[in-house]
Amino acid sequence: MWIVIIFLLFLIFLLIRPKQVKKIKSKRLVPFGYTLFYTDQNTKNKNPNVIYKKILYSEKYNIQGKPDFIYKKFNTCYIIELKSGAIKNESMPHTGDLLQLVAYFLIIEDLYGYKVKKGKLIYSDYSFIVHNTRYLRKYLLKTLEDMRSMLKTGQGQANCSFVHCKHCMCRQTVCDFYDKL
Ligand code: SF4
């Protein structure tokens, strides 16, 4: 009996959990009910309640960055990153862009103690809503660990494939791994 109940609860969890990344047509910038807290954009008339162009550094994760916009509602933040290119018929954002946004989630939580539930990657044609899930955070931390280890030892394994590498500027230029594909 208990096994059936646990199984049903697990099924319900799978059905109601938010998708990690969702592609949408809307490029709306300001999330409903949120106010601007930080921006990396230039403006003549500065709002004294907004932080401008500061490099945000997380000591805990040893990562830093400057998101395009952070909006805040109570103790919750929503991060927006603008991308100049188009995503066309891709179902997912570029991996580097996705990891950049997730890195901002961690930085904001560590630096300000605010909760970050989700953010948005806005390309010139489509946007992606990205949820701050455990899976994405773990994915980012593992990638950081691999990168740091590669920098230290000069050795590493590249996850090289046509799909993974197709937007990388190192492809067919400086990357030895891709040449061996
Ligand atoms: S082309 Fe090379 S550097 Fe770029 S993602 Fe692929 S393996 Fe990594």
Describe the overall structure.
By secondary structure, the chain is an alpha+beta fold. The chain has a single domain, classed as Alpha-Beta Complex (Lambda Exonuclease, Chain A). Helices cover 34% and strands 23% of the residues. The strands form two sheets. It has a seven-stranded mixed beta sheet, with helices on one face. Strand 7 (76-82), helix 2 and strand 8 (115-122) form a beta-alpha-beta unit. It is globular. The model has no long low-confidence stretch (mean pLDDT 88). Residues 158, 160, 164-165, 168, 170-171, 175, 177-178 line the site of iron/sulfur cluster.
Brief overview:
With 181 residues, the chain is of the alpha+beta class. The chain has one domain (15-179): Lambda Exonuclease, Chain A.
Whole-angstrom Rg: 19 Å
CATH class: Alpha Beta
CATH topology: Lambda Exonuclease, Chain A
Query: Based on CA inertia axes, which overall geometry fits?
Result: globular
Low-pLDDT ranges: none
Question: For the terminal residues, how far apart are their CA atoms?
Answer: 52 Å
Order of helical and strand elements: HEEEEEEEHEEHHH
Strand content: 15-25%
* Average predicted confidence as pLDDT: 88
CATH-scheme architecture: Alpha-Beta Complex
